[in-house]
Amino acid sequence: MPSFAKLTGALFRDKVRAVHMVVGIEIIGTIVSIILMFISNSKGSMTDSILATTLGIVMLAAGIMFLVLAIRQERVWTKNFYRLIPVSDAKLYLANVLSVVCNYIYFGILQLILLLVFNIGSWHYFKYMKELTPSLYGVTFSTLLILVLTTLFFWIFFSLIHLIVEALSSFLPTLHERLYRIVLYVVVFYVVIKVISYISGMVVKVVSSVFSFNMTHADAMSTAAGSMLVASGYMAVAIILLSFINVFILNKWVETNPQST
Fold it and tell me: How far apart (Å, rounded) are the C-alpha atoms in residues 128 and 131?
């Protein structure tokens, strides 16, 4: 039986090839875009234009990488190659999710390196970072934390949709099964979205009532950071609850695809 660390490492290596592929295409696209910018506009400084272009490409690549990793994550639940590994479903689930998170962090580090390399002429902007106040650092940290948790939540949420459909599909008639699965995806997605929207609305009302009072600018910054930390706490609880549901469904009702390897 493989250890959790070895299993996570194997799943990480299985997905890291997709990271390298996306980054490779991104580098080619960035170089081509910069060359075309120099050809079309040979006068004046291109520093700001290059920065804007690379930031746009990074955001596009981040969205694509999110979807690619989500697809790679979902393949694990129904493939014989993974499900026949002699580990518990809970360990497989945690290792798979952790490998996705680690790959996205690795992807983010590569994005930071690419931004620095392609924008050497813009390094002077970093001198303004020393002017940031401690309260703004708190807001920045809280924002990054909630972004990370939101990204993880959506991966967990996609797994919930996928696992529910896989569990229900065993009760579907064989004839027109693909059509039934599409309809089922739409229905389950709609129901889950409505439930999550209702719960989110309740949370927002509670947080707003707690922090709705007059304050100075510094207090507003601190309160904003506190609000996002509270929201991050709710997000973490939601991730844990959905993960328990996912593992339960995976263990009880989701079978592997006989045609998968």
Answer: 5
Burial 38-75 (b: 16+ CB within 10 A, else e): eeeeeeeeeeeebbebbeebbeebbeebbebbbebbbb
Rg (CA), the chain: 22
Residue 166's alpha-carbon distances to 67, 75, 160, 255, 261, in angstroms, are 19, 12, 10, 8, 17
- What pLDDT was estimated at residue 214? 46
141, two tokens? 């940290």
Residue with tokens 């962090």: 105
Contact criterion met (CB below 8 Å) for 250 and 163: yes
Confidence class for position 223, pLDDT limits 50, 70, 90: low
* Token output for 101: 């998170």
pLDDT of residue 93: 95
Predicted model pTM = 0.81
The structure tokens listed for 65 are 């990488």
Residue type, 230: V
Domains assigned to the chain? 1-126 (1.10.132), 132-261 (no CATH)
Per-residue confidence band for 36, with pLDDT thresholds at 50, 70 and 90: confident
